[in-house]
Amino acid sequence: MEIDRKQCPDFFLDYILYITVTKSLSSRTVQEYYLDIRLFLKYLRMMREPQFQDINDLQQIPIKDMSISALQSVTLQDLYNYLYYVTEERENHDRARGRKVSALRSFFRYLCQHQKLISQDPTEQLELPSPKKALPRYLTLEQSQQLLQSLNSAYPERDYCILTLFLNCGIRLSELVGLNLSDINFKEAKMRVLGKGNKERMVYLNEACMDALHAYLQVRELPEGSAETAVFLSKRHTRISKRRVQQVVETALAQADLGGQGFSTHKLRHTAATLMYQYGNVDALTLKEVLGHASTSTTEIYTHLSNQILKHATDSSPLAHFERNSQSQAEQENNEDHESKSENTDITNPE
């Protein structure tokens, strides 16, 4: 959904522009903040103005003509009432409520401190119960090896490389899809990725990652005249989509008899971190740097980790030296079946 500028009051549009150009937020985060604040403004009108109180669909309430005076009188209780509303009426869970609190704090801080449009920030005392932290789900070392070994794909080098990078480097889905050829430094065995908030970081490549990348790039083909710079391509020779990568992972999990167990693309990231921690004697601070997590107050006293330590983290993965058999049993059966079909037909349809 695009930001509908014609339906927003000026102070709201100014805020969206402010966070877009000064906060290094991703376009997705800006979009989420826009939707969260817009919903709050509509809720505020519904609760305070009689002409809107009988409207069931909050989206029908206009906010273009809202005045800043409506926000000057917002209280802490108004905010808690809003959070109760999104919990009960819109079934928002901890994560969604937490994002709404972040959006509200950012919005009112902007109005109060930067623009001086309101005299008091009602979010200063706003609290939200900490969400219950569930243990991340991950594949064991044996399951990870099984996933890599059992892969049977029409694009084996590409898909094997994708799985290898996820399991060894712990990169995010968006980071993998966004990789360009210029991001990879083969001489120094590292690559540049663009993480959350458009923050760049270097990810070091162990032996398994280097081998998988070399094998894939040898078969990566482009039509004559194409200037596509993406590392991973779809069958249409364009940058692979996030959904297609998810399908690759889902199919590979099913082939390894790991489907339907709650594993996903993001769980491969958890797996990489867990295996580094369990087998590589990698501490939590190093993992934060490897995974591109934001620093917390408890780790601010530490200096930045050296490149050698970061490289050791990926080298210490137990999958760093994994080599897939030249041809898995599943591929052999697939090839035999393909040859059998070829004998009975004169026409083949390439995927």
If you had to describe this structure to a student in words, what would you say it looks like?
The chain has 2 domains: 5-114, DNA polymerase, domain 1, CATH 1.10.150; 141-328, Orthogonal Bundle (hpI Integrase, Chain A), CATH 1.10.443. It has helices spanning 10-22, 27-48, 69-72, 76-88, 94-114, 141-149, 156-169, 173-177, 207-219, 242-255, 265-280, 284-291, 307-315, 329-343; strands at residues 184-185, 190-194, 200-204. α2 crosses α5, α7 (156-169) runs antiparallel to α9 (207-219) and α12 packs across α13 (307-315). The longest helix has 22 residues, at 27-48. It has 351 residues and is mainly α. The chain has a 3-stranded antiparallel β-sheet with strand order 1-2-3. 50% of the residues lie in helices and 3% in strands. Residues 295-306 and 345-351 have low confidence and may be disordered.
Quick structural overview:
The chain contains 14 helices and three strands. It is mostly helical and about 350 residues long.
Distance between the termini: 33 Å
What portion of residues is helical? 40-55%
Strand order of the largest sheet: 1-2-3
How many strand elements? 3
Shape: elongated
**Average pLDDT rating:** 84
Tell me the β content: under 5%
What CATH calls the topology of the largest domain is: hpI Integrase, Chain A
SSE order in H/E notation? HHHHHHHHEEEHHHHHH
Number of helices: 14
Structural classification: mainly alpha
CATH architecture of the largest domain: Orthogonal Bundle
Evaluate the radius of gyration: 25 Å
**So, the CATH homologous superfamily of the largest domain?**
Intergrase catalytic core
